[in-house]
Fold this sequence. Notes:
Blueprint: H1 3-35, H2 40-44, H3 49-67, H4 78-90, E1 107-110, E2 129-139, E3 147-156, E4 166-168, E5 176-178, E6 182-184, H5 194-207, E7 211-213, H6 221-224, E8 229-234, H7 250-257, E9 262-268, E10 279-280, H8 287-293, E11 301-302, H9 313-327, E12 331-335, H10 344-353, E13 359-363, H11 374-379, H12 384-397, E14 405-409, H13 415-423, E15 428-431, H14 433-438, H15 461-464, H16 469-493, E16 507-510, E17 516-518, H17 519-532
Parallel strand pairs: 6-15, 7-8, 8-9, 9-12, 12-13, 13-14, 14-15
Antiparallel strand pairs: 1-16, 2-3, 4-5, 10-11, 16-17
Helix pairs in contact: 4-16, 5-16, 12-17, 13-16
GO molecular function: glutamate synthase activity
Protein name: FMN-binding glutamate synthase family protein
Family: Belongs to the glutamate synthase family.
Amino acid sequence: MNIVDILMVIVIGLGALILLGFIFFLVYLYIFDRNQKAHSILRNYPGLGRMRYFLEKIGPEFRQYWFNSDTEGKPFSRDEYEHIVKSAKYKRDIVAFGSKRDFDEEGLYIRNAMFPKLAEEIKMDRETKVYTKRYILIKDPLFSQREEKWENEESLAQLLHDDDAVVIGPNTKFPFVLKGLIGMSAMSYGALGKSAITALSKGLALAKGAWMNTGEGGLSPYHLEGGVDIIMQIGPGLFGIRDKNGEVEWDELKRKSEIPQVKAFELKLAQGAKTRGGHIDGEKVTPEIAEIRKVEAWKSVDSPNRFHQFSDVGSLCEFIEKIREHTGKPVGMKIVVGGNDSVEELAKYMRDTGKGPDFITVDGGEGGTGASYQELIDTVGLPIKSALPILVATLQKYGVRDRVKIIASGKLFTPDRIAIALAMGADLVNIARGFMITVGCIQTLKCNSNACPVGVATTDPNLQKALVIDEKKFRVVNYLVTLRQGLFRISAAAGIDSPIHFRPQHISYKDEKGVVTSLERILIEIQEQVDAG
């Protein structure tokens, strides 16, 4: 028998063994599926039924990339997602041919002026510059990797003029002065990994004029890494400033306030996606995170639904006063609006006592979260376009609107959305998921599992390797500067020289019949409802 015959016998023998093994496997699978008690499909269709579960498992990915149209995906459509990615990667927000918006649907529109502002008429900081890097697309072939060039770029930071800077807490010992209208919403270290937080911190610092909210998980070294201004959030769990009994450690709060980057404090009463306390799974509570939060490692952490330090508006405002006196920094609060009378008591108390927050962050129900419950995330709390006007109208009713700055949040990730929020009465805007996308988020919706495949919402060191800080930080810069540039551009189209001048008269509402109503008229109706109580 020659070598060829021997090889043939070996190949046939191996093939027979593989086939026999496969048959035994199918028999085992048939018997196992037929006798298991958890899945009805598998009991009736052994083996074959597993295909159904496989297809169900990969269904979200198929819908996201193949079957959903460019505009129907949730939470962010493909168009919305790609708009953020392209702004961050290429520092470009140009689209071609025409809009994909359904103009037959009802919606808000920005009123263009007959004589828009020229570029030289825009009032802005024309000296402060940013130094970043962006990709230049050279070729984008179908069957091979696109060819790109990474290049350095210098451009204006697109900041407000010094005269237009927004001041939070002007009567505090250390007011917070801002020349940018856009900052990062609350995202804790623990919910996001250290690579993501570091990239965001460095990118926001390079962009200048921005701020970073720590989230209720406490102030981490990674929030401080880039040197960006910080709003330190304090949740009901008092993470980062709590003693062993879960009470405020006032000396620790004082130490945090003495960090130069910490510009303000925010009490988190509620969040749009979860009008409840926060949660972090035990597998994310590493010894480092436990030390930052002052909790026990490897145990799931829940903060209460509310602070036990106060239970009404009076005690809330007294708590705010105590923090302000102890730190010298502005103190605000984050809320969710549920109805026309949600902030009535607060505004009345502010009028009667002269006490209250320096700023209010109002979060819409469409906002994001690392983990929440379906019934809360879908139904509890109004969306930002309803909540914001109610807050403004209530503060105006009691004559205290000018005493407090309003920060709006809830999917305000494009210049037009931001402009509409400013016209509705916001002074500033927070963004969370938009910034997550700049550092690599691909919407796998696994933020609560510690299995984020791109290393953003995970503390797993192996998964975090995917996120290259020195590349992603520039995407943060590019996205933010592009947003600001778009905001100035849309201001010019509306005939105003700065986005701080957006007012209700700059926005129109068109219903499904084509009838146009000014936002000013709509807000008057909301004001009348609030005034009527």
